[in-house]
Amino acid sequence: MTTAVDFAARLVDPTAIRDAGHGAVIVYVAPSRPGSNFGAKPITKLYADQLRAAGLEIASVWQYGKPGNPQAPSDWTTGYDGGQRMGIEAAERHRAAGGPDKAPIFFAVDEDISLEDWNNQAVDFFRGINNAIGAERTGIYGHSRACAWAAQDAVLGSAGGGKYWAWQTRAWSGGEIAPEAVLYQRVIDTPTSPGPLIDGSAVDVNDVLAPLYGQWSHYEQPEESPMARPEYTELDRMGNSRSERWGARITNFLLHTQEGDGTAESLSAYLNNPENGASYHYTVRGGIVCAVVDTDYASWSVLDANAQTINLCFAGSRASWSREDWLEIRDDLRIAAWLAVQDAKKYSFATDVIAPPYERRDGISDHKYVTQCLGIGTHTDVGPNFPWDVLAADVAEFAAGATPPPPPNAINDVEAANPWLGKRITNGEAATPDGVGRYAEYEHGHIFWSPSTGAQAIPASLFGKYAALDWEAGTLGYPITAATQLEHGEVQGFQRGAIYRQDVRDPFWLHGAIRERWNRTGYENGPFGWPVSDEEQLSGGEVRQRFEHGQIVWPGRRDTVALLDADGPDTPVADHD
């Protein structure tokens, strides 16, 4: 079993620690409190480098205050503001010592606190830490019950496998070891029961209970090796065939075929006519890359998934191609991989290649992924013979490490940016029934979060419709944009549709082909006006949605029929798609 030591009185020789059979040191990133002068607080970069040179792992802990000290009371008694302040300082001192930005920090509750103490004071301290550095970096040092309470209240980061950043002390634990713990302080140095001596100093000894226990090395990224950018010529062919992303987090880079014989330039010219109703961010052929839509905007490529995707089309390609056909444009595949990785790094989504059989997650895939995993549309490009193995090898080469995860502490960040939500009702965060996301309820709305969409606030004026559609598990999925105020109402985008509410009516939802057709007419400002119903199932499998001045019918295939109200027969409206 790997063991780790901790100590505060003085710096202990790293070689002596290693020779005593220990594999790690838990170091203090807190300074000495008033009236004390601990030689090992706070950790310095020089000493951290010496520990590394001796082959020792390092983890960080913060403990500043002490019971009965009027100048520095116990940290957990300082409330939310104290937690936020100490979280910021802990992260700064951790970083100054060479600690990686993503590594967790344990915060000490070095007393026999009760559940009442936890609920009335300590949990607010940890929520303040969460706001400062993110829950995923927050750890606790305390007795077994405190570790369990912190995990239950979702103020700790997960170490995987049911473990959390919980460092349990033997003191006050009644002989039990919390299942949440990654570290267990088995030997505690006290005046009446000294710990083992190493280099002349008594130390505490901890058992390591999990593969991940906060060690810095897990979060230290290797230096990226230089790589050759593929040779290509990029042409600026930016046009206006685009839409706002409305705050949606980009989750996927998608590949497409043209199903025609165009060049990158001829295809971009076609896409730049908004009346054609289609566009991609990039067109590629023969070493030419045309930038058609700025990636900060949504292209018109994948219906309801436009807001969360970046799209590239291989000009002149077809889904019926053989593997040999694809390998004839080997250089263009490499260019696509390069562009995908650069955008993944820019917008913080994963560089995983999602090949058939598909699995829904962040990453790089194709149009069929949208059809099969997201349930949007019917397209099957790039076809069954696409060389995914070749693309994956190129992506792995260009990725050269890892892609940063979504920003931490997302629900709290959205709460701070939206004071209209009012008082928080949920104690912390709650898990969504699908097991994927989390949410919090407020006086005037909710915030929903998932790994692929980030966190978005849903106002109460729209939430009733969202709830009626079974929340995130229903037709719409998770929100991907913030609610946007329009001239006479509001709208919010979701993974598989949108909710619109006109000031004078209840909210209604739109999705799929009908929504796309309505969008192309000019949204609520176009000739059809606002929606006045949800979709209605008609006989024969047709689906209809009514608007202020007409209706749009989807007959069960791609083409929709749009009819404006008239005194006589309804007036058909031509589509430019």
Whole-number tally of structural domains = 4
Q: List the uncertain runs.
A: 401-407
**What is the CA-based Rg, rounded?**
28 Å
Number of strands: 31
Largest sheet, spatial ordering of strands: 1-2-3-4-5-8-9-12
Specify the CATH homologous superfamily of the largest domain.
Answer: Glycosidases
What's the N-to-C terminus distance?
65 Å
Mean pLDDT, to the nearest integer, reads 90
Helix-strand makeup class: alpha/beta
Strand content: 15-25%
Task: Assign an overall shape.
Answer: globular
Count, helices:
13
Assign a percent range to the helix content. 10-25%
Question: What would you say this structure looks like, in words?
Answer:
This protein folds into 4 domains: 3-219, TIM Barrel; 233-399, 3-Layer(aba) Sandwich (Lysozyme-like); 406-498, no CATH class; 511-577. The chain is 24% helix and 23% strand. It contains 13 helices and 31 strands. Strand 20 and strand 21 form a beta hairpin. It starts with a strand and ends with a strand.
Question: Which key features would you list for this structure?
Answer:
577 residues, Lysozyme-like, alpha/beta, single chain, 6-stranded mixed β-sheet, 23% strand, 8-stranded mixed β-barrel, TIM Barrel, 13 helices
Compose a concise summary of this entry.
Helices cover 24% and strands 23% of the residues. With 577 residues, the chain is α/β, with parallel strands linked by helices. The protein has four domains: 3-219, Glycosidases (TIM Barrel); 233-399, Lysozyme-like; 406-498, no CATH class; 511-577.
